[in-house]
Specification:
0% strand, mainly alpha
Length: 79
């Protein structure tokens, strides 16, 4: 697969963001991205990941007031 220069920039920026902000499930839960959380939980992503301050996705969702995401995470088995 050949990547364009723009693809490389996007990949690099994404990698830098995730390194600073945490794993994708944590970031989606913290930001309130319901669809992203649903896709990741249905795909079987690891639920008990840690963000930069050792918070888990469920804690981040609750702290952000994202009740529907918290419910999705609990239904998927997140503690």
């Amino acid at each position: 697969m050949d990547l364009s220069p723009a693809d490389w920039v996007n990949a690099s920026l994404t990698e830098a963001l995730l390194a600073r902000e945490g794993p994708p499930l944590f970031v989606a839960a913290r930001l309130g991205c319901v669809a992203a959380v649903k896709v990741m939980t249905e795909a079987g992503t690891h639920l008990e990941v840690f963000g930069p301050k050792q918070q888990r996705p469920l804690h981040a969702a609750a702290a952000g007031g994202h009740a529907s995401i918290a419910a999705t995470l609990v239904s998927a088995g997140c503690e």
